[in-house]
Amino acid sequence: MPCGHNFCLKCFEKWIKQGGHSCAKCRASIPPKMKCQPRINLALVAAVRMARSKSTPSGADPSKAYNFVHNQNRPDKAYTTERAKKAGKANAASGKIFVTIAPDHFGPILAENDPVRNQGVLVGESWEDRLECRQWGAHLPHVAGIAGQSEYGSQSVALSGGYEDDEDHGEWFLYTGSGGRDLSGNKRTNKEQSFDQKFEKLNEALRISCKKGYPVRVVRSHKEKRSSYAPESGVRYDGIYRIERCWRKAGTQGFKVCDTCLFDATMNLPHGLVKHMVTAQGHCLSYRS
DNA sequence: CCATGCGCTGAC
DNA sequence: GTCAGCGCATGG
Q1: Whose CA, among A30, A36, A205, A239, lies 20 to 30 Å from A60?
Q2: Which residues surround strand C, with CB < 7 Å?
Q3: Which is more confidently placed, A31 or A268?
Q4: What's the domain count of chain A?
């Protein structure tokens, strides 16, 4: 908050719901925008997590996992063709991919795959839009939310607020599958669901990554307006998550959706605890500024 | 080849 | 603010 105080997100939301209008610590007034769109203080989340994990589990190096960047060393703008310059960026070619990962590469993008900067893609790094995000390999499809192959697995997902059944709790979230929508009329998206989703194609790719335990890269977009964990602008790489389970459920629009629960891989949580968080929706390791 | 897709833009 | 509708990349 402007006064510099931080609160647990759940507590803050409860406070606002009860009619709180000032900081519980210093009574400074809370701006309206902060009331309706509180944002997570990622630096504080990282610090608290770091402090909590006293012993370093083998295979997880916190110094790497929490290597945040502050938008310096930004790459060039996404490449656009001459034709796209006339027609607008929506019609642009995606441009050069700067990293050397294969499209079906699972897991982080390391320094050895980043000949341009030799540092890899860092957790917390962000880009202007999906085309630029694609150029750095974090999430390659520039429209689709799920990257993957139905017989191999899913490499990454994007949280962009495109499906209202999504639920973002920071270190874990529920992600709705693709499909179920009428895209006739040359549409790329459609807010209305008109038939059931199935575990096929990209949804099936997620299910395979779940079964195999593959790491999934996660990016969050500013277009997700309901989440306090979404960036205020651009597209941000939020690191590696793993899939706890996939199932079908009734969506809010009256048709079935393929739901997936992902959790932050650096949490090292036993599956039971994630389930507990899903059902109890207790306090999370969530702080805001 | 054809179908899908959680973007993006200018126009209103 | 809302909206239609486009190229492109990818999977199948």
Answers
A1: A205
A2: A 81, 83-84, 87, 90-94, 103-104, 140-143, 147-151, 185-189, 201-202, 204-205
A3: A31
A4: 2
Report CA A228 to chain centroid distance, whole Å.
11
Q: CA–C1' span, A241 to B2, in Å?
A: 33
Using an 8 Å Cβ cutoff, are A228 and A37 in contact? yes
Contact criterion met (CB below 8 Å) for A68 and A46: yes
Bases along strand C below 7 A from a protein CB: 5-12
Mean pLDDT of A77-83: 63
In a domain, A104, yes or no: no
- Determine if strand B comes within 7 Å of the CB of A89: yes
Task: Assess whether pLDDT exceeds 50 at residue A280.
Answer: no
| A130 plus A249 within the same structural domain | yes
Residue A100 in tokens: 């050397």
pTM above 0.70, yes or no: yes
Minimum mean pLDDT range among A147-156, A160-169, A275-284: A275-284
Is residue A207 domain-shared with residue A273, that is, in the same domain?
Answer: yes
Q: Is the minimum distance from the CB of A231 to strand B below 7 Å?
A: no
